Each structure stands twice: as C-alpha cells, then as structure tokens.
Amino acid sequence: MTGKARRKAKQPGFRRNRNPVTWLLRHAQMALAALGRLAQQPLGTLMTAAVIGIAIALPSGLYLLVNNVRDLTGSWDGGSSISLFLNQSLSDQQARGVREVIARRDDVAEARLISRQQALKEFRQRSGFGEALDLLDHNPLPAVILVRPSRIASSALATERLAKTLEGFREIDLVRVDLQWVRRLEAITRTLERGILVLSGLLSAAVLLIVGNTIRLEIQNRHNEIEVVKLVGATDAFIRRPFLYEGVWYGLLGALIAILLVTAGLGLMQDPVQRLAGLYQSGFDLDILTSGALLTILTGGPLLGLLGAWLAVGRHLSRIQPE
Amino acid sequence: MIRFDNVAKRYATGREGLAGASLHLAPGEMAFVTGHSGAGKSTLLKLIGLLERATRGQVWVNGRNLNKLRQRDVPYHRREVGMIFQDHRLLHGRTVFDNIALPLVVAGMGHQEIQRRVRAALDKVDLLGKERSHPVSLSGGEQQRVGIARALVSKPPVLLADEPTGNLDPELSREIMELFLQFNQVGVTMLIATHDVALVERLGKRIIQLREGRILHDTGAPA
Q1: Whole-prediction pTM value?
Q2: How confident is the model at residue B24 (pLDDT cuts 50, 70, 90)?
Q3: Are B89 and A227 within 8 A, CB to CB?
Q4: Are residue A45 and residue A136 in the same domain, yes or no?
Q5: N or C: which end of chain B has fewer CB within 10 A?
Q6: Are A202 and A161 found together in one domain?
C-alpha cells in the first residue's frame, strides 16, 4: 500500500453501544447519584442552594408586588375622575336625563350631578366671592356631572377614550379629565417593572456564577476520578453528565427555597397591607404566587443551574487529561 | 496489532521521550519493554493508549492510525486498550466491584452483563469475596490485581502495563507475571514495561530494550 493510498484508506470504525434502555437507566442513576453527593454535604449544599434561592426570590417577590400594585391601579376607587360641564341652556330636568344616560354606560361606575343651584351654593360657601355673585343678574355656573369610570375603563388610556366619547355629547360643553395620578402610578409601575427586569438579569448572572463556581470546585475535588474514568474510555459527555445533574439539582433546590421565601414574605405582609387597605376603605388581598409564576421559578431555577454547570464544565473538564 | 513507524515524541518541556522508534507486535504477541527510567518505556505505552500523541512518525494500533484519530474517538480507542499502572490508579471512594466495573459502566453496558463480567474478572485475579471491600483495605499486591481486573474486564485486544510489579516483592511480582502469561495465552496482545530484567529474562518472551528514546535491542525484531 502506498503512502497516499494508506492516507485515503478509511479507518475501521468503533463499535458504539447505544441501548436506549441502558442509556436512560444510566441517566436516572447519575441524577440520583448527583443528588446523593449533594446530600452527603447537607450544610454546604443548603448554603449554596439558599444563596441561589435568595437570588431567585428577590426579583420574583418584587415582580409579585408590582403585579399587585398594578391590580391596585385598576381597582382603587376614584382612580381617576371626569368632570362634564353641561351646556348652560339645559334645564335641570334635561341635566338629570343626561346623567342617567351616562350612568347607564358599563364603562361608568358612578355619575353624580351637581345642578347649577347646588354649584352656586357650594361656590358661595367655599370661594368667598359670594357678594360678587350677587352683583350678577344670573347664575354663571354650569351644571356638572362627575363621572367615575368603572373598572374596565380605569386605565389612563381607557379613561381618555371614555372622555372622548363623552365629548361628542351635544349637551356637554367641556370635558375635563383628572388623570394625573393614574398616569403617574402607571409610569412608576412601568419603571419598577423595567428595574425588576434588570435586577432579574443581574441575579440570574449571579446564579450562573454561583453554580459555576460550585461545580468548578467539585471538578477540582474529583480531579483524580475524572482522570481515571478518562483512562478507561469515558466520553466527554459521560464525564460531563454528573456535574450537569448537580447543577440542575442546585437550581431546583434554589427554586424551592425561593418559593418558600416569597410565600413567607407575602404572608408577613398580608396583615399590614390589609390594614393599610382598610384605611382607604378598600378590601384588598395580596395575590400569592400564581401557578404560572411557580412554573417559571421551578423551570427557570434548574435551567440556570444547568447552564452554570455547563459553563464550568466546558471550561475546566477539558483541562484534565490523564498522564 | 501494534506498529511504530519511526516514532518520536518530544514533550513541551523539550525532553525527548522517544527519538525514532520502529517496532511491530503481531496480534497475540507478548513483549517486555526494558530500560532505565527515562529511556522511553512509559512514553511508548502512553503513545499506544493515546495519553500522548506522537510528534513524528506513525503509530498504528488495532488497524487504526492513531495520528488520524479524532479527539472525540479517543475514548473509544481507550476501550480497546487496557492499561495497568504502577500506582494502580484506583478510585478509593468506591468498592473493588465498582472499580472493576468502571470500564463497562463507561461503555454503557447493561447491569446484568456487568455483574457477570466483573465476577469473571475477579475470579481471574483471584479476588472473589473482596468485591465489597475498598481498595485502601487491600494489600499492594491485591490493589494491583484490582487494577489488572479493571484493565481486562472489557476484554480489550491489547493490554499495556507500566511497571506493574514496581512496588511488589519478587514473589508477588512473579504471580502477576504468571497472570499476564495466562492472559496472553487466550490471545491478548501484551506490552509490559519493566526494569526488572532478571524476572523478564526467565519468562523467555520477546524483550525490547530502550535507551535514550531509541530501541537498543529487540529480541523479536525480524533479522
């Protein structure tokens, strides 16, 4: 055989054992073994998991609070109000009719009419311009309908839409919307949400680093073992696997701790929040973790653990070669 | 089974492990590699087990050119080459059984087959009854026999041993060599590095003598 022919000749392939049942069994075994290793150092494992738990609990808890505040924006009585100034030519009878039409709308929770006489009386009492008014030969004040939007029209946008519709009424001269603080609250909520997003990113990176560092130490501790299994023909995937499982377990433990922390934190806040809500004549319960949030934490934690372990394993495992 | 074509190995430190060695081992052949420490015995074995790669020349094992073997195929190559070390390289946190089972576990073998094979290997090295023990509780000779059982449990066609009797007294050394002769009789190609020339010469097998990375004398080389 010439040199060239030899180079071209295909090397005999290797026999690879790919029995799926054995493969699955091995995975289950490795997952359990990884859990067993964590259980052998309960204190260390718990501390690492607690750090991960806190890192996950912080953004989750904040997210939940902001969610509650957003609910609050929607439910708080008098979140915004619209003042409708009626045409001066309207009689009291007609004004009452307009009020009734508006009150029947389902985006209106309440509509209260202040007749021209009532308005004049109030103005006299409050402004101190009573005597000046006496000089006028007629009542210059229009009748006003105060509208409180119902829940479905409580956001700034929906309230504005409602105001636009009301502006179209012939009987209404002027529509004034008091949206300031609803807008502010919405802006604050949005800012908080963005902040939580940034915080989540940072703390996710922290979880990656924690798991990565823990796995790196574990790899160092088992340096000798890794060398030996490489000697007897273990593939990189085989060697990687137990470490990846450890990462997943750390993430899962961290997620469980996070859920505990958030639940406990909300439980502690429930009482004072209710008292606070009571002061505003509002029945309000803090929402607890929804199933969606639970699912996110329970899949996100292990995923972060897996990723952190993967990063550590990728960097450190290839450096270990048997001699 | 094993062929070296003018193979040289220079380490990153500049030290020359092998400086152009050529040899050929037929399937089922048994040979001893002798020489002083630093003569290149370990390098020779490491190149076969792909613990190192040659810097020059070609190494062929079991019909494959190791120079062309991709890194991801190295594990599969090692499964065909059993390796025995002077320091045993056992896992001290695991039982004798688990140590011997390791190559089979790594290869993805089923549970029952592993049980059967490990027991057969334990029987061959006369360690039945010790499978639940931990390596540290065993004598040096017994630990070495665990190492040997681990190397042969997957029935590799090639078995390498690097100073397998280095730490053992003459009586135990002779026993280990007897074991190797038995394996060779069932067709395993064996290459054993040792500095115990006296022991080896009595066995009447091929001897490859190394000095400073070159083959000084080879009793089995074609004339």
Answers
A1: 0.76
A2: very high
A3: yes
A4: no
A5: C
A6: no
* Residue A201 backbone dihedrals phi, psi, to 5 degrees: -60, -50
- Give residue for tokens 């979140």: A79
pLDDT in tens, A103-133: 888 888 888 898 888 888 888 777 777 677 7
Q: Which among A112, A147, A178 is the end of a domain?
A: A178
Nearest to A12 among B51, B64, B72 (CB): B64
Q: Per the structure block, which two tokens stand in for A20?
A: 């799926």
Residue A11 forms part of a structural domain: no
Long-range pairs for A289-295: beta carbons < 8 A, 24 or more residues apart: A289/A60, A289/A64, A289/A259, A289/A262, A289/A263, A293/A60, A293/A63, A293/A64, A294/A259
A94 Cα distance to chain centroid:
48
Segments forming the whole domain that contains residue A257: 27-73+185-316
Q: What is the average pLDDT value for chain A, to the nearest integer?
A: 84
Q: Are A53 and A203 contacting, i.e. CB atoms less than 8 angstroms apart?
A: no
Taking the CA atoms of A262, A268, A274 and A279 in sequence, report the sign of the dihedral they define: negative
Domain count across chain A: 2
User: Is residue A65 domain-shared with residue A193, that is, in the same domain?
Assistant: yes
Catalogue all structural domains in chain B, each as residue range(s) with its CATH number: 2-218 (3.40.50.300)
